[in-house]
Amino acid sequence: MPKKNPGNTRLKSWKEIATFLGQPVAIAQRWARSGMPVTREGRYTVAVPDELNAWLTRESGSNQPVHIATDNADLSADLKHALSDLRKQRTGGRKRVGKQNKVE
Question: Contact at 8 Å (CB) between 11 and 68?
Answer without folding.
Answer: no
